[in-house]
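Sample 3 of the quickstart, ligand adenosine monophosphate:
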Amino acid sequence: MKQYNTSKAIRSELEQLRKNSATVGFVPTMGALHQGHLALIKRAKAENKFVVCSIFVNPLQFNRQEDLKSYPNRMEQDKKMLESVNCDYLFTPSREDLYAKAPNLDFEFGSLGVGMEAEYRPGHFEGVAAVIDRFLDVLQPDRAYFGEKDYQQLAIVKWLVEQKDSNTEIVGCETERFPNGLAMSSRNYNLKEAEFEQASEIYKLMQYCKRQLHQKTPQELSTYAFEKLKEDFQPEYFTIVDEETLKPIQSWSDTAKPRVFVAAYLSSVRLIDNMSLID
Ligand code: AMP
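Result:
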């Protein structure tokens, strides 16, 4: 695996590859890699000649300084993991390199940028859109891979690519979970052993909603789950929305594609998850 630290160097490497009509898949990450990230890399490897993974903890998408400071850093383990799945390129730019030109943070996401993460992490998606905007300009990948684990982010990125009229295809990949249902996440590295089991309650409550579909109203389910979460977590939201517009639904007839979204703190670790309520 070749590592590049500057936009200029990786851009010229990829230009050479493209001259030979090679396809490039891109997987942006913030490091502290896990099997969820590796699933994205493997998919990208299967669908492209070369794969670039970036590790960049993007300060613009953190609305709380403590969160940025406590974000896990595991660069040496990350490199080994990337090599184990034959990733071709690792891109680790500095902030100065990536944001040499001041980024645009002025986006109009419409309903995608109103609730859930947008509400609880003000400025988060502006930061995400800015960094992806920059990465796509530098790398010009044929395809870029994002996890459904961050479903609202995936929707924002699809919106961005449409706005930019970019040639990059955005590929959404299913959430990888542990056997107990907990979604894999870099933040899990900050969970204590006992909390790992507790954290699976989020998955259990989403499954409960799926089983209770049409038996109870969306509001009844959200309220029940939110109250239940309060026993061990500090929940921020537990909400059921239309998966296209991300607008909350009042009744099941409001959408053919209901999806549940959750954010909750387990001690100091902020966990998010989501799941389609239909198969
Ligand atoms: P992050 O490093 O948290 O910014 O995540 C980088 C990419 O990996 C994003 O597209 C995430 O949605 C994706 N990702 C994170 N966790 C998972 C997971 N458990 N399953 C699938 N994709 C994931």
